[in-house]
Amino acid sequence: MSENPTLCGILPVNKKAGVSSFSLVSLLRKKSKIEKIGHAGTLDPFATGVMILLIGRVYTRLSDRFLTADKQYRARIRLGETTDTYDSDGQILSTSDKVPTLEELERALLSFQGECMQVPPMFSAKKVQGKKLYELARKGVVIEREPVKVKLQTRLLGYEYPEVDLLVDCSKGTYIRSLAQDLGEMLGSGAHLSALVRTQSGAFTLEECVSADSLADPSFDYRPYLRKCV
């Protein structure tokens, strides 16, 4: 069946917390009656912000262009607790009473500027020897992961213990959860990612996104918000 071109295109959506990336794809399939729909980079269920949905064959073929684009995030990191997933959805593994000073935090953040080596978390969709890491992690299996080179620009927005607020510009494949874990180790306090908002994906910003609630409204017409090119 041919696809109606007026229903196809690029739709930036503001994902809300508690909603899976796949559920937005499923919702749009029902609304558009188009089967071929993809996305350009998932967000964890607890995270919010920019998700690029690609509607129709012409646009899903462009997914690599969006997947490789730089991203920007606002991240909140909670010091004093580590979790198995490196975020607030996980089980607490350790706690610490250490309260890093602002000077210690600023010094530690110097290590997250420019090119860095980062180890992907076990609870991630990254594949090692054909298996997704989170499938192993759910079985309690932890394996060695090769560090990956990423590019970061990290800016401190605020610090009031135990919360650290950061603005992070990063390259493809960066895990903000791993950044939180690494920062906690460097400070000697432990840490995990407690909130995450993707504010930009490539050329698309949060301000131009359709809300997930609007998309869920049966009467909402998404067509005026479609982008046909970038």
Structural summary, described in words:
The chain has 230 residues and is α+β, with helices and mostly antiparallel strands. It folds into two domains: 5-68 and 203-225, Pseudouridine synthase; 71-201, Pseudouridine synthase, CATH 3.30.2350. It contains seven helices and 14 strands. It has helices at residues 21-32, 57-60, 63-67, 102-109, 133-137, 176-187, 212-216, and strands spanning 9-15, 37-39, 48-55, 71-79, 81-83, 92-95, 114-118, 127-128, 131-132, 148-160, 163-170, 191-201, 204-205, 210-211. Strand 12 and strand 13 (204-205) form a beta hairpin. The chain starts with 8 loop residues before the first strand and ends in a 14-residue tail after the last helix. The model has no long low-confidence stretch (mean pLDDT 92).
Q: What percent strand?
A: 25-35%
CATH first level of the largest domain: which class? Alpha Beta
Tally of domains: 2
In sequence order, what are the helices and strands, one letter per element? Answer: EHEEHHEEEHEEEHEEHEEEH
Alpha-beta content class: alpha+beta
Question: End-to-end distance, in Å?
Answer: 27 Å
In summary, what is this structure?
With 230 residues, this protein is α+β, with helices and mostly antiparallel strands.
Give descriptors for this structure.
230 residues; single chain; alpha+beta; 10-stranded mixed sheet; Pseudouridine synthase; elongated; 14 strands; two-stranded antiparallel ribbon; 34% strand
